[in-house]
Each structure stands twice: as structure tokens, then as C-alpha cells.
Amino acid sequence: MNFNESTTKTNLARAFAAECQAGARYQFMSKMALQDQQKFLSDTMKTLAKNEMAHAKVVYDYILKYNGGSAKNIAIEAGYPFDEPALETSLKEESLIELSEAENIYPSFARIAKDEGFVDIARSFTEIAQIESTHHQILKYLADLYETKKMYKRDKPTEWKCSNCGHVEIKKEGWKTCPLCSMPQGYIIIDIEKELSNKI
Ligand SMILES: [Fe+2]
Ligand SMILES: [Fe+2]
Predict the structure, then answer these.
(1) How far, in Å, are 57, 96, 110 from residue 18 at the CA level?
(2) Distance 99 CA to ligand 2 centre (A)
(3) Distance 115 CA to ligand 2 centre (A)
């Protein structure tokens, strides 16, 4: 199918807008977390923001590739969220947006791209969907910890590590200020992937 007449072209442009906006919102959240002395949370949001911008680049490059190097004014119609950012609500809301991207939006974009004969684009949409699914899990986990005020409390002894000086302790609760370098609790690293895999 001709790329210019395809739905895939519009879907790439929609994906670009969505990824850029998610990247921007995650950077806002990263700043908020830092103001709140939640360094680990801030770093995590920064990493997610970087992932979203990388996704934006992937879809952007497809538009250029299939459009001879430029595409002027692709019109899209889609809804995007604009909410007052606040860590406790944004983590949860963003986790739901990621879930909908992972389970509905990108799989449907991938199906359409495949039907229209753009197998490389379909493959990338599917890969992005898998990453958004991981983002969903990370954000949901953090939202739950934040909401229950258990960011640094666990039922079992857990390894806590300071991201500033590397100090390690195995306890049920992370220190309020690091015994070695005195940085606040928010500098403690949470091994999200390990904790998530222990939960399964
Ligand atoms: Fe993304
Ligand atoms: Fe994401």
C-alpha cells in the first residue's frame, strides 16, 4: 500500500505525539520528585522519559524513511491528557496510560501496519508495546509504594543501597538518612525488577 494513503502514516504521527508528550510529562515528574528529595524516583522517571524519547525517534524515522526524507504537516486527531502533575496521582494515571498503550493502542497499530504491508513498522510497534508493558509494571509498583507510604518499608529484610555512596544494609526498613554519607532516604535504590520478579 502507498504510505501516504495508509493509516500507518497517521498512526506513526500519533505515536510520535504520544511518545513526546509522555517523555515531557515524565521529565516534569522527575523534577517534582527531585524537589521532594526523591532522587531514586527522579532518576527512574528520567530513564522512562529517555525511553519514550527513543520511541519517538523510532517512529519519527519511519515517517522520514517512507516519505522520502520529509513530511509536511501530517494532520492527526487524538486525545492527550493534561492534568495537574502530582506524584501520588500521576504515577497511577501514567501507569494506566502505559497499560492502554501496551494492550490496545500499539497492538492495534501493529496489526494495521502488518495488514498494510509495513512489516518493519509492525515489528517496532510490537516491541514498543512490550516496553510500555514494563513501564506500566514499574509505574504501578511505584504508585502503590508511594500511596501506601511504603517506598522504603518491606515485610521481609531487604537490601537497601545508597545511590550516592553505595552504603548497603539488609533490613525491613531503609534508613532515614544514610549512615555513611548522610543523604536523605530518597537516595536509596529500589531494585524494582527484582522485587517485581519476587512477587510473581
Ligand atoms: Fe514509549
Ligand atoms: Fe512508556
Answers:
(1) 12, 14, 16
(2) 9
(3) 25
